[in-house]
Automatic annotation (TrEMBL):
Family matches, as SUPFAM superfamilies: GroES-like, NAD(P)-binding Rossmann-fold domains
Any matching Pfam family: ADH_N
Alphabetical list of InterPro entries matching this protein: ADH-like_N, ER, GroES-like_sf, NAD(P)-bd_dom_sf, YIM1/Zinc_Alcohol_DH_Fams
Protein name: Zinc-binding dehydrogenase
Species this protein is from: Nocardia aurantiaca
Molecular function GO labels: oxidoreductase activity
Sequence ranges assigned to domain Enoyl reductase (ER) in this UniProt record: 9-329
Length: 333
């Protein structure tokens, strides 16, 4: 293959599987760095985009998908700062809006969106983190201000965002409860949170058992729908904060208002779509890398091996729920 070309998995038509193509290798323009991609994390959003069911992601075909990346800087354009050739980096760099994604051998990335990779993690493990870690951070720290002594409830504590949120809240000194069912309850326990089986326990029951009826200081909803409604009834009066990453439906705010509590939403894609606040994503990932290297946060990664030729198969595994942790595609070694 020519040094001027690369392999990339391209979504050519919404509703059809992405296909492997040989395309021109990007040349980093001003304020960009060229990253040789080692691994690309797969998020449920990737599948929604592929299916044409994510208008909010503002993707036009043909497009290179892949939001999360881990790799090595191989070229730095004039005007770029913070990284040098040879640096191992990770970030949430594209795959939405007009930014090309990471399902390619190389990507010209905005360095503001990158951070140095956690030393303790492999490339595959690092590629599993950016979207979920940034989302958890924006929810718990930027919106809810989680601090030592807080009583936190994470809905979906074994999920992609949920299992990082549990670890992040514990790292900040909070006491954490998390909802789940079946096998996920043991995983939640292993992360250091108290598991709540939402299929057998009502909101009133677990609020009474965990908080003496007072409610949680912070409730993080990662599920949306009825779970967000349940969150409004589980939060502490006056000072409680509910944060949702999927608050897109129609909900009655009356239960929240009657408790005098507050609500915030998180839309992690905004910096990628608008260009505003990109530096904060890099700052978050730098802080997350420190927590990872200190042993506070470890991502769950599905052990199945996928490559650029297996993207459709990886997407099916995410859709079917057969994965055991975050699905990651190895792009090149």
């Amino acid at each position: 293959m020519s040094s001027k070309t690369m392999r990339a998995t391209v979504l050519e038509t919404f509703g059809s599987p992405p296909v492997l193509r040989t395309i021109p290798r990007p040349i980093p323009g001003p304020d960009r760095v060229l990253v040789k991609v080692a691994a690309s994390g797969v998020n449920p959003l990737d599948i929604k985009i592929s299916d044409g069911a994510a208008a909010h992601a503002r993707v036009s075909v043909p497009a290179i998908l892949g939001i999360d990346v881990a790799g090595v800087v191989v070229d730095v354009a004039p005007g770029s700062s913070g990284f040098a050739v040879g640096d191992e980096v990770y970030g949430m760099i594209g795959g939405v809006g007009a930014e090309p994604g990471s399902l390619a051998e190389y990507v010209a990335a905005d360095p503001a969106l990158l951070a140095h990779k956690p030393r303790r993690l492999t490339m595959r493990e690092a590629a599993a983190l950016p979207l979920v870690a940034i989302t958890a951070w924006e929810a718990l720290i930027d919106r809810a201000g989680v601090a030592a002594g807080d009583l936190v409830l994470v809905h979906g504590g074994a999920g992609g965002v949920g299992h990082i949120a549990v670890q992040l809240a514990i790292a900040r000194g909070a006491t954490v409860y998390a909802t789940g069912s079946g096998r996920s309850l043991e995983l939640i326990r292993s992360l250091g949170a108290a598991p709540i089986d939402y299929t057998t326990t009502t909101v009133e029951q677990y609020v009474r058992t965990a908080t003496g009826g007072a409610g949680f200081d912070i409730v993080l909803d990662t599920m949306g729908g009825d779970t967000l409604d349940a969150s409004f009834g589980a939060v502490r009066r006056y000072t409680g904060r509910v944060v949702s990453i999927l608050g897109w439906g129609a909900h009655s705010l009356a239960p929240l208002s009657f408790r005098g509590a507050s609500y915030s939403g998180v839309f992690t894609l905004l910096p990628l779509l608008t260009g505003e606040g990109r530096a904060h994503h890099g700052e978050i990932l730098t802080a997350v890398a420190e927590l990872v290297d200190q042993g506070f946060i470890t991502p769950m990664v599905d052990p199945t091996s996928y490559t650029l030729t297996d993207v459709a198969q990886a997407h099916r595994a995410v859709t079917a729920g057969t994965r055991n942790g975050k699905v990651v595609i190895t792009v090149q070694n």
